[in-house]
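Worked Example 4.2. Read the sequence first, then its C-alpha cells.
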Amino acid sequence: MSDAQPQPVPVGMPAPAAPPRAGSAVGGFFVDLAIAVVVMLAVSFAAFAGWGVLRAIQVAMQGEVDPGDADALMQAIGQPGGVAMIWVTLLGTGTAALVPYVFRRRASAAERAASRAAARRGSTWGWVAVTATVVFALSALATTLARQFGVEPEPTNQEPIRQALAASPWFVGLFVVLIAPMYEELLFRRVLFGRLWAAGKPVLGMWLSGIAFALMHEPPGMTGNPWPSAMLLWAVYAFMGIAFAWVYRRTGTLWASIAAHALNNALALLVLGSA
C-alpha cells in the first residue's frame, strides 16, 4: 500500500481547508511521543518513590529494623511486587496517554459523535472479532515456531502480571482487559497514529505508531530477553500496533481498536492463568 494515493479524511474529523503537511505531522508525532515518554518516566519515578516512602514507614512502624541501619532498612523494604508494579504502570502510562491527548489531540464533538455512530454499526464488531483473532493467532504461532529454534520470548511485563494474578486476580483482570487497552489505544492510536492519519499518511502512521508500541513494551536495554527473543517480541508488538491502527481506521471508531486490544489481552491472560 502506498501513501502516495489520496487518503480519506478520518471518520468524524472535519476536513481542514489545507491538510497538515506530512513533515509537520511527523514532527508532531515525535513531539507527542517525547511528551508521553517524559511524563511516563516522571510519574513512574514519583510513584516508585512514593511506594518506597510508604514501605519504609511500614517497616519502621514494625520496629524490627534499626532505622539508622541503611543496609538493613533497604533489605527490609525490598522490591515492589506485581500489584505495586501494575499500579506504577497504570499511573505512569495512563498519565502519559492523557497529557498529549488533552493538550494536543483532544477529540472534537463531531469526532466523538461520529465515533459513537460507528460503534453502533454491527460490521464494526465483526472487524473487531476478526482483528483480535488474527492478532492472537499469529502471535501464538510466532512464539510456537520460535521455540522450535530454541528462542524463548517472555514479555517483560509477564512476570509482574503473573505475580499480581496470584495475589489479586480481579484487579489484574480489570487492568489487563479493560484499563490498559483504553489508555494504550488513546496514546498509540488516537494521538500518535491519528496525527499522521489526519495528515494523509495513514500507512506511515501505522508503522511509526506500531514501532513505538513495540519499543514501549520492550524498551531496548531494559528487556530481560536475549536479542533473538527481544527482536521477536518487537515484531509481534509492532504487528499488534499496526493491526489495531488498521481496525481503528477501517471502522472509524477508537472503540474498535480498544475492543480488539481488550479481546486479545483477555485471551492472553487466560493462557497465562492456565499455564
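Now turn to a second chain, presented in exactly the same format:
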Amino acid sequence: MLVYWLRHGETAWNRLGKIQGCTDIPLDDEGRRQARETAAALSGVTFDRAFSSPLSRARETARIVLQGRGPEVQVLEDLREVNFGSFDGRDMRRSRSDPADPLYLWFHQPASFRPAPGGESLGQAADRIRGVLERSILPLEGSAGRVFVAAHGSVTRIMLTLLMGRPASRFQELSMKNCALSVLEVSGGRVRIVDWGRIFY
C-alpha cells in the first residue's frame, strides 16, 4: 500500500511568515495554483481512501488535488496542525531569532518547548501523529492500494522524523515546502519512506 501524504498549499500567513497552528487560514491564490499543479502531476493516480485535516487549507488542497475523483475525503481531527494556542499569529522570523520569545525553543530545542494555555507540547503532537498512523492508516493495508492524506508542515515533518527512527525533537532538521508530497510504503505493518518533500510547481 502506498500513502501519498501532502502538505497543504500556501496561505497568506505562510507568505507573511506567521505561525498558523490551528487558526483556520484558507489557501491564497498561489496555494490554489500549487494544488492545481500537484493535481496535474497526480492525475494518473487513483486513490482508494482519502483523509484530510479539518482545517480548511488542507481540505481545499485535498479537494483541488483529487478533483472529484476517488473516494470522499474523510476528515481526521488528529491530522490538524500542531496547536500553538495563543501563540498563533506570531512572526516566525522573530520567534526563531529572539531567545526571549516564547516560541524560540520550538525552533531550537522543541523537546523543551512549553506550550501556551490550550496548546500542545511536542510530545503530545507526536503521540497524536503516531495514533493517526496506527489507528487510521496501517489497518488499511490489504484493503486499499493507494491512500491520500492532506495535512500540515509540522505534522508531516514530525511524522517523517519518527519514521526515520529519530526522536521527534529532530523534526526541525527537515524542511517542507507548501504542497510538498511525501510517499510512504506500508508492507507487513511496517512503513517505509519512498520519497519526501517533492514539489510539482
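Notes for the reader: The radius of gyration is 16 Å. DSSP finds seven helices and six strands in the chain.
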